[in-house]
Every structure is written in structure tokens, then in C-alpha cells.
Design a protein that fits this description.
316 residues; alpha+beta; 5 helices
Length: 316
């Protein structure tokens, strides 16, 4: 655990950097069972089946899934053992499941807690307003419909997703974040190195926030989970059946992931391009900027004359 307020991805990267992914018990951590109920996260020692840590869900400030490995999960919560406002980032690695399942479970629990709090507040408010002048009822009402059941809760909207079937060849490190002269040699190297019988049939799920590559077999294993914001380049190889994307990794390196599509990679690339454009538009909408009109104090002839003078004689 890290006792400073830093981004979750940086915490995960610092704890996993240089550690062999094949080791289940990494860093100073140990094997645990995680149990999530309606109010708490319980960490249980599997050998003795005792609770070694209990974290109240309302005390959790933020949680997230690792960028490099979809089995990494972390949450930030206030340290209850200290008087000062010190927060700890708790980092975990799941054995046989994706950390996104834990994140979605926490989201659902928080949603239910907010609903319960809204119902409780509405109940108190209605009882305070109506307690005076009321008599004890002597019979059941004809309609037993509770108005509180109609309390609306803003549920999150599901993002539009595109599902493109293709084959995933693998990935390779590249030196720079972009450029067709960087992408195409990487695609060529991966396509020639990995035999065709090792290509994995996958489904690429594309949304305005992420690109998720999952295998088409019964396991539905996630091979890649990348946020759109970390996509640095996209392009097609010399053969238009191959395409690649370059991802900016947490350790400031760059990976090129290679795909094979039939009859071509045009549909896959267009869907990813559309997701990038939509993501960019959302960023513009979230951070609007006022465009100030430029005052033209000089005529165009005077501006050209000033430009020529500064080029030949330097700035005065």
C-alpha cells in the first residue's frame, strides 16, 4: 500500500514494475479472498478463513482497473487508523477473473446505497410534514402503492459499442508513439514471426472510452483493455488485411498490437477512428473555451510589409 495520494494507475505501475507476472504473490502482498457485501469489502485469509481487513464501501473515494493488466484492481480509501487526512491505495491482482468484475460490483453496491439513502431521506421528509394532525388508520387502504417506489435514480447510460470479429496476432514494443514508418515494420515483423495457427480469434469491442479485445472461445478472456485516451496511432499495413494500433503504456513505453481481418481491416479502423473522434468531441464539450476575436489593427499590406522587414532586418 502507498500512503500518498497519487493516481491509481501510477500506484499499480509502481507496485508491479519489474515483477514477474507469473508470480501470484507479488510485492509484499499475499493471497487473499475478497468478499463484497452490501456495505463492506472484506479481505479474508484463505488459510485460516479469518477477516484480516474490513473496508467500509462509503469510505472508498475512487477505484479503478489497471491499464497494463486487466486483472489489476485498486481502490483509494481514507486510513481510519490515523487522525490526519491520509489516504491509502490498496492494490490487488485477481487470479482467475477480470478486475472489471470487481469494479462493476462496487458500482452496483454504491448505486444501491444511494437509492437506499434517497428513500430514507424521502421517508423522513414525508413523515416530518405529515406527522401532525394524522390519526391512526383503522383499515387498509384500497391501493397499497408506495409513492417512494417511484423515486427516480439517474442510472448510467450504456455506451454505444461496435463489435468487430477478427484475429489477434500479438504485440511488439516500438520506439515512437506514431508514424506509418514505425507501424508498418512492426506489423510486418509480428505477422512473419507468429505462425498463422497461433492467431487468436477475437472480438474487438469499440466504445468512445475503450477498446476491449476478448477471445471468442468459452472463456471470453480479455486479451487487451485499452482506454481510447492512450491510443497514440492507428494504421493499415502494406497488406490491407493487417492493421495495428500503438498504445502508450504506463511505463512510458509504446506497444503495437496487430490484427488480421477479412476481407480487409477498413471496418475495424473506421470504427476505432469514429470512437477517437467522439472521445475528442466529448473532451471539447467538457472543457469549452471562449474564442476571442482577433483585432486587426493593421491592414493586410502593412502586416505583409512588417513580416518582410522582420525577415530581412530582424525584430526591432
Amino acid at each position: 500500500m502507498i500512503e500518498v495520494v497519487v493516481p491509481i494507475n501510477r500506484c499499480i505501475s509502481e507496485l508491479t514494475n519489474g515483477i514477474n507476472d507469473g508470480i501470484n504473490c507479488w510485492g509484499d502482498g499475499k493471497d487473499l479472498y475478497m468478499d463484497i457485501n452490501k456495505k463492506d469489502i472484506l479481505l479474508i485469509d484463505p488459510s485460516e478463513m479469518i477477516i484480516i481487513h474490513k473496508q467500509s464501501i462509503p469510505s472508498i473515494r475512487i477505484w479503478g482497473v489497471g491499464r497494463e493488466n486487466s486483472r489489476d484492481f485498486a481502490y483509494v480509501a481514507k486510513d481510519k487508523d490515523r487522525m490526519k487526512n491520509i489516504y491509502k491505495c490498496h492494490v490487488f491482482r485477481c487470479d482467475n477473473t477480470s478486475a472489471r468484475i470487481i469494479a462493476n460490483t462496487l458500482r452496483d453496491v454504491c448505486k444501491n446505497l444511494m437509492i437506499e439513502r434517497g428513500l430514507l431521506a424521502a421517508t423522513k421528509e414525508s413523515s416530518t410534514d405529515e406527522i401532525s394532525g394524522q390519526k391512526r388508520p383503522t383499515s387498509f387502504p384500497e391501493s397499497i402503492e408506495n409513492e417512494l417506489t417511484h423515486v427516480s435514480f439517474p442510472t448510467p447510460m450504456e455506451e454505444q459499442k461496435k463489435h468487430v470479429p477478427c484475429k489477434y496476432l500479438g504485440c511488439i514494443y516500438v520506439e515512437k508513439p506514431g508514424g506509418i514508418h514505425i507501424l508498418r515494420p512492426a506489423i510486418e515483423k509480428v505477422s512473419q514471426t507468429v505462425p498463422e495457427d497461433k492467431w487468436i480469434s477475437v472480438t474487438v469491442n469499440i466504445s468512445p472510452t475503450s477498446i476491449i479485445v476478448s477471445s471468442d472461445d468459452d472463456t471470453k478472456e480479455q486479451l487487451l483493455d485499452c482506454r481510447i485516451r492512450y491510443l497514440s496511432f492507428l494504421g493499415v499495413g502494406q497488406d490491407n488485411n493487417f492493421c495495428g494500433i500503438i498504445i502508450h503504456c504506463a511505463d512510458n513505453s509504446f506497444k503495437c498490437h496487430v490484427f488480421y481481418c477479412q476481407p480487409s481491416c477498413v471496418q475495424l479502423c473506421k470504427n476505432i477512428e469514429a470512437a477517437c473522434k467522439l472521445r475528442y468531441q466529448k473532451c471539447l464539450d467538457a472543457h469549452p473555451q471562449v474564442i476571442r476575436p482577433v483585432e486587426q489593427t493593421k491592414s493586410y499590406g502593412a502586416q505583409i510589409k512588417s513580416l518582410v522587414e522582420s525577415f530581412w532586418f530582424g525584430n526591432k
